[in-house]
Amino acid sequence: MSYNLGFIGGGNMSTAIFQGILRNGDHPASKIWVSGPHLENLLHWKELGANITNKNGDIYSTCDMIFLGVKPQFLSNAISDCYNTLPLNMPPKKVLFVSILAGTNIEQLHKALSILPGEKQVVRTLPNTPMAVGAGACLYTPDNTVTEEQCRKIEMLLSGCGVCERVAEHLIGSLGSLIGCGPAFMYIAIEALADGTVKQGAPRALAMRLAAQMVMGSGKMVLGNTKHPGLLKDEVCSPGGSTICGVTALEQGKFRATLINAIEAAVLRTKEMEKK
Fold first, then answer.
1. Percent of the chain at pLDDT exceeding 70
2. Strand pairing partners for 53?
3. In degrees rounded to 5, what are phi and psi of residue 135?
4. Residue 11 in marked binding region
5. Gap between the Cα atoms of 115 and 79, Å rounded
6. CA dihedral (106, 112, 115, 117) positive or negative
7. Which band of pLDDT confidence, cut at 50, 70 and 90, is reported for residue 1?
């Protein structure tokens, strides 16, 4: 790879993507730069071979592709700092920005980046936290100036963190809420299933570990099978057996409706954020 890759913001999600890139061996750490206000918080990047700085302008002047990893409410300040710390007489350049900001659309990103000199391309992404363990999901949508080659490059970089899917921007709200908020819903389910098992006398650590393994295995069954999840459920439910009794309890507790409502609430909140 001949280009320099940058990160403005070195928080948890940026770190997960960085570690996935290193795990895949797709880009050398020596050609990766990261900026943040406190260098001491970036030492784990430096230990893995990346270059660190507290000036966002260093990232813009040095890198050809830049991941935007700040919180949405800090985007304007981050770009202002980028502009204010640019080297004097820096020649115009083309930079591809890859945003991981929730609730910030392509139009808003271009508006925020407009103060920077040169040509800016934008790809909006929505990753989830399981990317930190290489089992995540990430959606992305490019603006109309981004080439297919650039899209393939982004997919390659993100493939070390899990599945990467290109979607139309109007689907980011619904699908993004599924993959972005869904892990929290599953953590609650894992905790509750473990609690129920502990209530029946099992050791907590073992119950938690097996609950997590069971959820992971169930997901793999769906991904590796052409059967509908409803049919896979039916295959576990013997007539008059334990599973169908448990399924009945879930239906009585409106388990499906609650999950549907959870996704809807998350999507509505995402739409509210995009309007601000």
1. 99
2. 35
3. -130, 35
4. yes
5. 8
6. negative
7. low
User: Can you read off the two tokens belonging to residue 12?
Assistant: 């948890």
Provide mean pLDDT across the span 89-93: 86
Tell me which amino acid residue 206 is: L
How do residues 187-225 score in pLDDT, each as one tens digit? Answer: 999 999 999 999 999 999 999 999 999 999 999 999 998
128 annotated binding-site participant: no
Cβ neighbors of 27 (< 8 A, separation 6 or more) are 1, 5, 21, 157
Q: Is 162 annotated as a binding residue?
A: no
Residue 36: pLDDT over 80: yes
190 is in an annotated binding site: no
pLDDT band per the 50, 70, 90 thresholds, residue 112: very high
13 is in an annotated binding site: yes
Q: What letter would DSSP give residue 37?
A: S
Identity at 192, one-letter amino acid code:
A
Helix (H, G, I), strand (E, B) or coil at 52: strand
* 115 labeled binding residue: no
Alpha carbon separation from 245 to 39, 117, 214, 230 (Å, rounded): 55, 64, 19, 16
Burial of 75 from C-beta contacts in 10 A (0-12 / 13-18 / 19+) = buried
Say if residue 54 carries a ligand binding annotation: no
Are 48 and 79 within 8 A, CB to CB?
A: no
CA–CA separation, 243 vs 218, rounded Å? 15
Contacts of 218 (CB under 8 A, 6+ apart): none
What is the tens place of the pLDDT at every residue in 140-187?
Answer: 999 999 999 999 999 999 988 899 999 999 999 899 999 999 999 999
Q: How far apart, in whole angstroms, are the C-alpha atoms of residue 23 and residue 257?
A: 39
